[in-house]
Write a structure and sequence with these properties.
By secondary structure, the protein is α+β, with helices and mostly antiparallel strands. It folds into 2 domains: 1-40; 53-164, Rieske Iron-sulfur Protein (3-layer Sandwich), CATH 2.102.10. Helix content is 28%, strand content 25%. It has 3 helices and 10 strands, in the order H-E-H-E-E-E-E-E-E-E-E-E-H. The strands form 3 sheets. It has a 4-stranded antiparallel β-sheet with strand order 2-3-4-8. A hairpin with a 3-residue loop joins strand 9 and strand 10 (153-157). The longest helix has 30 residues, at 9-38. The termini are far apart. 19% of the residues are buried.
């Protein structure tokens, strides 16, 4: 049995276009349904979409790493331009104490002035070419802070950033 063929030039031009539009509409509906399912049907952030904490790792090895190679630069927590990049620093001899978090831009510059770390040091180069110490970076004033869970694991609490929209 032969399949029906489109005979007129108009039908041969329009039917494939309509078929393609229908496929694109089905893909769009599927994408929307998945997004609605993942977000739980609300427009608010959820733990699934934007976790309120981020586990960095064991404090012992992280403290050693910071002592040897300088602070940890964690780039782009959710943005393409790096405005949510953070720097994790440790000071002192006790691995469970002395943790600090900074935004990865100078305190006297806007969030778009993302820094780059001078490898193996506590120094950073900002968007204007200035070399600055880790202490000159912008401290998060919106509830982003490090904490040590069970005296073994470093966790960054991001509740302030997710509630206020971050830097």
């Amino acid at each position: 049995m032969r399949l029906p063929t489109l005979r007129s030039p108009f039908a041969r031009a329009v039917v494939p276009v309509l078929g393609g539009a229908a496929v694109i509409a089905v893909i769009g509906l599927f994408t929307w349904a998945m997004a609605a399912y993942i977000s739980g049907g609300s427009g608010q952030t959820s733990e699934r979409l934007a976790p309120s904490t981020w586990t960095v790792g064991p404090v012992e090895s992280l403290a050693e790493s910071v002592a040897e190679d300088g602070p940890l630069l964690i780039p782009e927590l959710g943005t393409a331009i790096g405005t949510r990049s953070i720097v994790i620093d440790h000071q002192g001899q006790v691995p469970t104490d002395g943790w600090r978090v900074y935004w990865a831009y100078p305190a006297d510059r806007p969030p778009t002035c993302v820094v780059e770390q001078v490898v193996g040091t506590r120094e950073f180069v900002d968007c204007e070419g200035r070399t600055i110490d880790v202490a000159a970076l912008s401290p998060p004033d919106d509830g982003v802070f490090p904490r040590v869970d069970d005296r073994t694991t470093l966790v960054i609490d991001l509740r302030g950033a997710t509630a206020a929209g971050g830097a």
